[in-house]
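## retry 2 of 3
previous attempt timed out at serialization; input unchanged, resubmitting
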Amino acid sequence: MPAHSNCDHDHGTPPAPTGAPQAESKSDHGYGHSHNHFDVRQQSRKKLGAVLALTSAFMVIEAAAGFYTGSLALIADAGHMLGDVAALALALFAVWLSSKPAGPSRTYGFHRSEILAALANSVLLVLISVAILFEAIHRFSEPPAVQTNGMLIVAVLGLLVNLLSMKLLGGHGDSLNAKAAYLEVFSDMLASCAVIVAGLIIAFTGWYLADPILSAILSIFIVGRTWGLLKESVDILMESAPRDINIDALTQSLLTIDGVSEVHDLHVWTITSGMLAMSCHLTVQLEQAAVNSQNVLDQVNAVIRRDFKITHTTIQLESADAERKCNDVCAVL
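## retry succeeded, writing output
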């Protein structure tokens, strides 16, 4: 575990003497970093818009066909598509909102809106799946007759629409928001496959229970897949350490840097997908002529950027022989 002081520290940093920087701001999280995220968001916006148009149009067709044929599997798929429409619209709004510049009251801008959208989409998908599961259980006792011809035609069309949407959203990269939208469409693709299987079973055997059984299985599977995305969204909003960051390894890497003798108040969190931030206090010893504050900062940023992909840092350097007391500001160089 990271070496922490047993007392609380005021993270407000008093002015440091000239030539002793307390923190460093690199171009990695300046224009170049923001510009890269802007390009990714613009590409994501176009893809989401196209998929939203496709999904909205087919959802209306599938819902009407589900009620006409009496197929719960079709209605379930249309229900998931309704969730898709809401989720894609929300994701599209989040992409637009996250492109807004930062301001005095929101110093990180609106990047977290993408995480909020991913969380909302995950919750919506779980609720729809649970509703379909309950309806399927209700139909176990008296499965209604289903018109398989119309059911199969619409299901095949739905599968083609979903495959096209998945191709458009395939390059979601590290964006949790785009990943949530992709998962929505992927779930619908599975639903279309389930409808086709149910339709074939009913057509060849007349076993109408296949419709609610496959709908129930599909709902359980989708809830299972969505749970990981839901947990990841909550972890980011709670500012938990990213799953792929080993805090112990990060601490040991910082301790290998010349002049660093202690690491405490180490925090790593995710601002939005692909944007990691870190803050920490480093106790340094500058006895050696080759070691100075700027060298320490340069080495720290080089190590965490190379080994941990962290580009946004706030680092406070403290003198090794300065006494730190509980509730006092840490003495800086």
